[in-house]
């Protein structure tokens, strides 16, 4: 896992973005989250701003998963996973992310385990995440798809799934977006 996370304080004020780098044999993909949009996740008014961006887009045959989540205790969980074309298992997936504390602090995640369960149609049904947070602290989070919220793209290789999540006793909401450009 290769991480290149910039804190919001280090990013230009106009950008207010947290960026992680996923480095594969095809090059590095930067995934950046719009922190203003993340702050609005789960609010009464859905955000109209883009939540994240990827630069460049994944190569054909690769799969990029991006989780953007907000918990009732003020924390946000931002996670990106890249499975390069030809990967044989989860062990080949590159994962990077961070937790934003309610006071704005950013803690990078280490040794992330990200499990996904799928329904009979192949849509995401449930996720679970375990990761190291700093000195001996662990993050554990799990979430279930909200109803029939899985939205498949129109041939563009994009799936969006709204999730109800929990972590450390705090409920939350999230959006899991999977980008799989056609080969």
Task: Tell me what the structure shows.
With 183 residues, the protein is mainly beta. 3% of the residues lie in helices and 54% in strands. The protein contains one helix and twelve strands. The protein has one helix at 35-40, and strands at 17-24, 27-34, 52-55, 63-71, 76-83, 94-100, 106-118, 124-133, 137-145, 151-152, 158-167, 170-179. It has an eight-stranded antiparallel barrel with strand order 4-5-6-7-8-9-11-12. The longest helix has 6 residues, at 35-40.
Main sheet overview: 8 strands, antiparallel, barrel
Radius of gyration: 15 Å
User: Structural class, from secondary structure content?
Assistant: mainly beta
Percentage of residues in DSSP E strands: over 45%
How many angstroms does the end-to-end distance come to? Answer: 25 Å
What topology, given as strand order, has the largest sheet?
A: 4-5-6-7-8-9-11-12
Unreliable runs, pLDDT <50, ≥5 residues? 1-15
Question: How much helix is in the residues?
Answer: under 10%
Question: Please, what is the average pLDDT?
Answer: 85
Total of DSSP H or I helical runs spanning 4+ residues: 1
**Oligomeric status:** single chain
Q: Let me know the number of strands.
A: 12
């Amino acid at each position: 896992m290769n991480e290149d996370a910039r804190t919001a304080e280090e990013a230009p004020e106009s950008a207010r973005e947290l960026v992680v780098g996923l480095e594969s044999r095809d090059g590095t993909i930067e995934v950046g989250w719009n922190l203003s949009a993340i702050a609005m996740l789960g609010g009464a008014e859905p955000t109209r701003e883009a939540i994240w961006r990827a630069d460049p887009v994944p190569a054909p045959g690769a799969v990029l998963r991006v989780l953007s989540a907000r918990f009732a205790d003020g924390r946000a969980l931002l996670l990106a996973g890249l499975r390069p074309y030809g990967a044989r298992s989860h062990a080949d997936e590159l994962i990077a992310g961070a937790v934003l504390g309610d006071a704005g602090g950013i803690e990078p995640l280490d040794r992330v385990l990200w499990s996904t369960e799928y329904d009979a149609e192949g849509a995401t049904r449930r996720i679970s995440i375990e990761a190291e947070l700093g000195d001996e602290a662990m993050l554990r989070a799990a979430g279930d798809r909200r109803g029939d919220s899985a939205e498949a793209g129109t041939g563009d290789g994009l799936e969006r799934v709204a999730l109800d999540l929990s972590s450390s006793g705090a409920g939350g909401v999230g959006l899991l977006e999977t980008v799989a450009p056609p080969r």
